[in-house]
Amino acid sequence: MTGGLNWLMNLKNDLSDTELLRSMLAGDEEALTILYRRRQAGIYRFAMQMSGSKPIAEDVTQEVFLFLMREGHVFDPARGSVSAFLFGVARNLVLRRLRVEQLLAPLGDDSDEDGPMLQAAGDLCPLEDLTRAETIESVRKAVLSLPAKYREVVVLCELQDVSYGETAEILGCAIGTVRSRLHRARALLLAKLRPAGEFEEAGSATVKSARCFA
Amino acid sequence: MNCQKFETIVSDLARGQMMAAEQRGEALAHSDACEDCAMRLHDEEMLTRGLQSLGAKMDSLEAPAAVEANLLMAFRARRAVVPAPVRRPSHSVYWLAAVAAMLLIAISVFVFRRNARPADDPRQAAKQEEPQSKPKVVDQSTPQFAKDLTVPDDNELVPQRPKPRRIHPASQRRPANPQLANHVTNEIATDFIPLSYLSTAGLQDGGQIVRVQLPRSALANFGLPVNMDRYNEKVKADVLFGVDGTARAIRFVQ
Fold it and tell me: Could you tell me the pTM of the whole model?
């Protein structure tokens, strides 16, 4: 009996997200379980990376799947994948939550917007050893300090490894917009992660680059 | 390749995005030749590495098990509370229901009329042919009305309806003739007073009613009050004769 159930579960594991969603809407609890276990981590991480708050990430993850239970029938496979649909819902929920809790302002206040995010131990530039734990934390804070429209492309494209095309579906914009926002976001991150001295040097480097164009 | 073009692709170059091999080679050659672009590429690569490290560090994060438990609870509650979506009947169903209702009404009317009509079977016909006692009113005091009320021969004594007609007081009868109606509705009659030992039920056996005029003193014989001022006047009365011709009851009419 148990073997039969496992076999059935394995069979359902092979189903696509769309098929699982359809089964879930028809009342199949196993389909919900499989779909949730397949997609919850990405949604949770996205919410966590966007908000920097564990409670918000938990709430958003739960709300996303509750929304899927209630309004899952609005999903249109022709417009994108279930994953993109879930990320889109999560994005709206996170932004709404952040607006309500005004978490964006305190994050900006905590750090010096124009200066480096975090000085690494000693005089070591964060960019020199970004794989170290302290510097990873500085990168995390730098990402959190980005404006929402730049933060979401960094989270999706850099941290979640979502393609440009799918990111465009999630954000509801053109791929070119995603690329330009990502480029701008990376520039902002570099500016935040550079030490003050090097920031000025980077400014002069920009001037040098301008000279180089000539 | 110049620095401006290098700047447009440096992110993709650092992120290892797919690009034409020729373009990649030109960009790398430019970074070797240009110190600033080499530093720019270096920074981008470090940033990419840092973001990848951050992503890898958070890769193990998952929603707590409580979230899944809450969701499953909500799903079960929703499945228990929300009924299955009700299918709205199409217009054809409404039409079918309407037609069925009309058929039902038509059948009901047909059956009702058939039951109300006199039966065509021989037994009922034989019953109708049986002579039934139907009281007839003959007003001798008013011959012009008696003509309307009295049936001239025996054939007309045969009742037209299967059920025997009950004898009603003159005030309650509904004559077909409007003049008679005025005449009858203006009259006030007493109940039939048995003239013999017949019970009241015996009066229902049928017979013939004859309108007569009697001296007002006759009222006293039946225990009714007599107006002494009109003692000499006559009073109208209906006498009920049985089928055997004997007077069975009388009522006084005013």
Answer: 0.54
